[in-house]
Amino acid sequence: MSSLAQRVETLHKLLHQYNYEYHVKDNPSVPDSEYDKLLHELIDIETKHPELKTSDSPTVRVGGEAQSSFEKVNHDTPMLSLSNAFNEADLRKFDQRIRDAVGEVEYMCELKIDGLAVSLKYVDGKLVQGLTRGDGTTGEDITENLKTIYAIPLTLSKNISFEVRGEAYMPRQSFLKLNEAKVARDEQPFANPRNAAAGSLRQLDSKLAAARKLDIFLYSINDFTELDASTQSEALDELDALGFKTNHEREKVRSIDEVLEYIEKWTKQRDQLPYDIDGIVIKVNHLEHQEEMGFTQKSPRWAIAYKFPAEEVITELLDIELSIGRTGVVTPTAILEPVRVAGTTVSRASLHNEDLIHEKDIRIGDSVVIKKAGDIIPEVVRVILDRRPEDAETYHMPTHCPSCDHELVRIEGEVALRCINPKCQAQLVEGLIHFVSRQAMNIDGLGTKIIEQLYTHELIKDVADIFYLTKDDLLPLERMGDKKAQKLMDAIETSKERSLENLLFGLGIRHLGVKASQVLAEKYETMDRLLTVTEDELVEIYDVGEKLAQSLVTYLENEDIRALIEKLKSKGVNMTFKGQKLSQIEGHPEFAGKTIVLTGKLQQMTRTEASNWLKLQGAKVTSSVTKSTDLVIAGEDAGSKLTKAESLGTMIWTEQDFIDKQNEINK
Ligand code: IVH
Fold first, then answer.
1. 3-state secondary structure of 234
2. Given ligand 1 and candidates 77, 83, 165, 167, which is best to mutate, with the most ligand atoms within 8 Å of its CB?
3. Which residues of the chain have pLDDT under 70?
4. Cβ neighbours of residue 666 under 8 Å, at least 6 residues apart?
5. Which residues bind NAD(+) (predicted)?
């Protein structure tokens, strides 16, 4: 070996050692300047003699050539997730199941690091590949980015071949610095360290990833045959010995009560950690017990993740605003002093109805505790009574509609207050918005703002008036040019050809959804035939319940409605079924043709599973939120896509909303 090659080898050894002492052991033996000096010596040699640069050189930590994309790679064994526990009862159930299966056990308690799962493959002691979790089956090759994480050994102290898995994360300190820099550059800051870590690992230029200062904790091994461990605890110790960084807050315990103590301790102390955790992972310690328990499709039966309750913050309730929906329901909304919760700024939260306001005794001026239900939808949890201003008065819903002043009624058996004035402006505007929406008449370009203007200018009073509009009516509206007006006129014209089910749905008849509209249109084929149906006839139809049958007949018997239908007819609006039969529709009418975006971490299914299911229902699943997005399904820690959807007013569902809908459809 030449003396230069020998020097390179020495430099590798020293730099790896110093790096390990600093980043894994947190116990440097030399000053930073010594490390830098040796690193620069190595960089110099490699620049002059590129043939001496190896893939495990400590210089790869600073990043290399940018890539154009990440290669998709199948995992050798799927990267599963964990089932969740949210409270003591869930944990005791888990414990019982374990003890029923294998008797008394020890548990390993570990912090649940809030980052991204990655896998690292070593061959003969050298790091050869690093993958993201992806959908669990296929990940992306982010080896070059992972190599920039100093705590990941490029070479191990033994020549073994195996795969280790762990959580890459961004320490809070790095996160704060990164966001400060972003704000200084007028860029949107990251919502939380997890999003920042995810963004960094997906940088195509590993030099940029290197600048992001990520870290990692390893927590599992794929194949134990390479190691001498018989427990999770020993496996982690062995990972330590091989040069990996594991989390040392772990504790081995003998009972579920001790697990609960560990959870309590970290619930209190989590804020003091230099990184975010979102829960505690509990694993059966003995590998033979783990093997006995095995796996479900999605997760090991021998482990569970306890999730910390959603973040709660305090803010002031400035006002209660009322909105009137299409069906006249008056909904109170809390207007809040803007506050950041779980990654986004919250300034409004639905209070649902008067009963809820009274149950929680919510008053204007109160300090209130806010959290995000399912980590997405803001909710007022409770009032802080000690902080209540002396003059705060019990809130009463108005007796009259804030829009039309008609008396509000509370329909028996319902908690909602409702304005029953069919001429109520707020309701009519909402009704018009519904009429032009995508699943109804699909009049593109006729948005809320335009409808409101047309209404206040008395150009439209009911849905049929839309078809009486002329270009001259439109031109005086705000921000309306000739081109836009023409486009809108064209869209209105085209909508006349919509099939009967779209028109029916658009009329906004109570209890009549997309599916039943389809069923009715397909069965009766024309509006004229529908106008003659009886309740008895209707309830015979499988998808039509009593409530709908009654509401539909009452609606269609109404003389004003009959006149409205005539008015629509006289303008050439189609009144016949010309859509696809249900048997030909691919998917479910509720989702077919909709553009849906999935974002955030889902707990009960993977994003791929959710996406596949939606596609089966005929939906288009896309990756970015735009004006044409119909629905955003947001899991935990959803970031900028959720913010965008909020700002566009796109419909947002939590994972639970989605699951409820799936159950309804699969019923
Ligand atoms: S064990 C079969 N241990 O939490 C999955 N996971 O759904 C075994 N996580 O995807 C995972 N800290 O990204 C394990 N100490 C820890 C963890 C941990 C964070 C993440 C991991 C996993 C998710 C659980």
1. helix
2. 167
3. 1, 343, 374-375, 666-667
4. none
5. 32-36, 81-82, 110, 133, 167, 283, 307
Each residue's pLDDT tens digit, 268-311: 999 899 999 999 999 999 999 999 999 987 889 999 999 998 88
- What integer pLDDT is reported at residue 212 of this predicted model? 87
How many domains does one find in the chain?
Answer: 6
Q: Which of 53, 112, 158, 661 is catalytic?
A: 112
Clarify whether residues 241 and 94 are in a common domain: yes
* CB of residue 290 inside a 6 A radius of ligand 1: no
Same domain, 327 and 442: no
Exposed/middle/buried for 334, CB within 10 Å: 0-12, 13-18, 19+?
Answer: buried
Indicate if ligand 1 lies below 6 Å from the C-beta of 114: no
Encode 273-324 in three state secondary structure.
Answer: CCCCEEEEEEEECEHHHHHHHCECCCCECCEEEEECCCCEEEEEEEEEEEEE
Mark whether 112 is an active-site residue.
yes
- Give the helix ranges, DSSP H, for 351-403: 354-359
Query: Can you give the pTM of this predicted structure?
Result: 0.64
In 3D space, the residue among 219, 240, 210 whose CA is nearest the CA of residue 305 turns out to be 219
Q: C-alpha dihedral over 201, 630, 476, 325, to 10 degrees?
A: -120
628 is annotated as contributing to ligand binding? no
Nearest CA residue ID for atom 13, ligand 1: 117
Known binder of ligand: residue 167?
yes
Nearest CA to ligand 1 atom 23: 81
Provide the residue range defining the domain that includes 117: 83-307
Does residue 109 line the site of ligand 1, with CB under 6 A? no
* Residue of 509, 500, 515, 507 lying closest to 551 (CA atoms): 509
**pLDDT tens digits, one per residue of 404-426:** 999 999 877 788 899 988 889 99
Q: Does residue 615 have a known ligand-binding role?
A: no
- Model pLDDT, residue 343: 67
Residue 248 CB neighbours (<10 A)? 11
Whether residue 218 has its Cβ less than 6 Å from ligand 1:
no
Residues 295 and 316 both lie in one domain:
no
